[in-house]
Amino acid sequence: MQPIPNTISLIPLEPLSLDKNLNMAEIKSMFNFIGRIRIQNLHSFDLNTNFFRIFVAPIKAEFYYSKFKVLQNGKESCDQNLYLKYDSNLKSLNIRFSSTIYFKNTCPLIFSFVKINTLDFYGISDTFIKKNTLGFKYLENTISMYEINNCIFNIFKANLSRDLIENNMLYNNKIIRVKGLFNYIDSNLFEKMKPKLIRFVTEDYLSLFKDGGYWLNTFDPIQTPLTSDNLFEIIIETYKPMNLSDKNLCYFKHIPSNRSYLIAPSLDYFKFECNCSFAILFSTYINIKNSSYNFKSHYTQLTYANFEQIEWLNHSFLSECLNKVKLCDSKLILKMSPDYNLIYLSLNIEFYNIILSQIIILFGILSNLICIIVLISGYWDINYKRETSKGLYKLMIINSLINFVYFLINCFHIINRCVEINGIFCSLVYRSKISQYYMIYFVEYLGSILKFWSSLTLISISIARLNLLSNIKYFKNPKINLKLILTTLGFSIFVNLDKLFVIIVNENEFILDFDFGDEFPDRNTFINSMMIIRFGRKIQYSGSLTIIFYFLYLINFIINDIVLNLILTCFDVKIYKSLGNQIRLKKLMTTKLSKFENLNFKVNTIIFF
After folding, report:
1. 21, 368, 375, 399: which one has the fewest Cβ atoms less than 10 Å from its Cβ?
2. pTM score, two decimals?
3. How far is CA 592 from CA 469, 578, 595, 596, 599, in A?
4. Considering the chain, what percentage of its residues have pLDDT values greater than 90?
């Protein structure tokens, strides 16, 4: 008997609905032993499903490549009368949505009467490259229906709105974690919400204060006694130093100092400075000085410990800063993070590159097809029966055929292209093994060989043209030419073999949105220093064996992209010089012939008279 796996993956061939008709009886007995269940290809979630209420052991439920469209008995409805209640035998779930298409006005009751430890949403975005926004319907008097401990939103340049962070669904929530870049934050985002721990993970902390921090005014005024039940704690985590110099003071224009919240930075990238930006942002710590407040987070506790040692942070200094910040212009300009700008710029370039490359490929296919037709017609023309002309025609036909096949292969390479999953463009078969094998064997391996021979035939054409202009004849021995062709063919096959080994099929069906490192196929690294960067990825080769693949890669690059182009350039220069010499010689002969004809005319005239 085979052991029960820790993870079960359900991948239906056709899109299904997660409803009461989806029979889980066959695997239900395993739910006590597995740690994770992953499901793909769902077109909807129905409120009549019992899927989230059948687990009697802690488990992770993950959904990929699906549509998070919530229905009720197959219809678009959100009736609160579900006649459900909490089951004390059920354990907490960890639910994740990734590579999923979201919808606005999603019915939140799909999570009602379910004990959820972590609810995780990936891929929320509102950009030209990817528009995938999530919003929940507002349903009154539903606070008691939800028991969600931790909710995580992974977003990229989207809005933090009341539709996304729905008040009733997350009222009893303990931790809200938002990771990414934000366009703006609704001014009433946390209004009438139970105090909790809020964690922002962003490359640009100023994006939280694009409105001058006005959204912080929605928190209730400070109440006494101070307890963890009446204070929000806001953690700002970043991967680069937070610049709180006074040149950014206007970003904190509307931040209040008497509201029930505490802000704490990630101290690894933070330096305490004596300035107004610092004083205003952390002004609420003044209200809890000399109190016995129990912190929810280690970050706020450490921040407060540093504040106790700062003498200049007091009401007098804060009052001066508040007067100073009133002079700020209300129109704030968000300075985006350079790292994320580069990522977004690269995604835009990738999209336009796909369009431009397909246009170039189309022209390449048509032009080479026309060349083949014209050259074959010229080859059989009775006026071109000289051996030199026939040889040149053969080379040109071969070159056009190679280019035609190369462009044709790259025309179908679009099946391997993906800008963003669920974004502006992503091939439907991007992750399939067939498309990955196509890229490995045709685009990468055969394409590189064809590119090599395309350059080589161009050099041969230049040599053939040079033979017509020069007394020196190159490669006139058929036997030597045949041996040279076979040797070169073997070399071109060998030098590209590394692509068949270091590029491997990526069998990871379950990837997270914004995981830019995932490729299909996986261009496996063979350099030891890159192994840390590719942590968690499959490393096929390491150690001394990598030298072989690195050597083949280097040789291939040097010959295919440098040496052959230099040789072609040298022969073209030689043709140019030979042609120039021929033209000068022809001009000289024409001049002498003209002088001779003039002399002959004068002699004939004298004799005649």
Report:
1. 21
2. 0.83
3. 22, 21, 5, 6, 10
4. 30
